[in-house]
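Input chain follows. Return structure tokens only.
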Amino acid sequence: MIALFDSGIGGLTVLHSLWRRLAQRDYLYLSDQAHFPYGDRPAQDVRRDVAAFAAFARREGAEALVLACNTASAIALETAQQAFSGPTYGVIAEVASVAASRSAGGVVGVLATTNTCRTHAYRDAVHARVAEVACPELIALAEAGGASDLDVAREAQAPLAALREAGADVVILGCTHLPHFERVLRELTRPWASLLDPGEALAERLARELPERREQRSVRCVTTGDPQTFARRLLQELPQVAEHARIEAVLPSALHA
């Protein structure tokens, strides 16, 4: 079983990538909706809650842990590794190497949360020039769901203009919520930059390192939020996964027991 952690529903984009690449697998999706968004939370709170979820994944028998949340990867990857005591992957390191290889001597642009930008995690990971721009309003649109293409284009205009001004020729979708808008963002950036989805890079590495298993192809979703709300979003975003999913709620206090 592979465990994925995200602060909300954005990590479903990573789950989708893994679902396609590692088909005969069981998944444990951990969603801390009670504390969403992580993008502007105090770092010590992020580390505390990530550690609790990592320990939970270990107790539930997961063989690998994926931090699908960019903010958690930026702030609490080492914390998760210590709490999980097993193979632990973060989305930032995987896409960073791909971005550096694709940039034609230009700038790698990053759209991300305020916290991810504040840590400069992408700047430290990408061996190239990096421009980081926070786009919390755009990320909030993705989490809320139902945004029109016009809404997305309007919120993306300023951060994308800043990256273009900085000379970016590659743009990393540095939050797992952003691939929900990939079609619109790709159209907006097509004349001057290519887009990279961290989930795809992460799925490629796990497909190389984790052996395929003939498991039940199931998904257990554990959320600190409302399970019915989560179920509706899962059905909306990934109907092909929803039919294999079991959703349950857990109190945040229970994770710290």
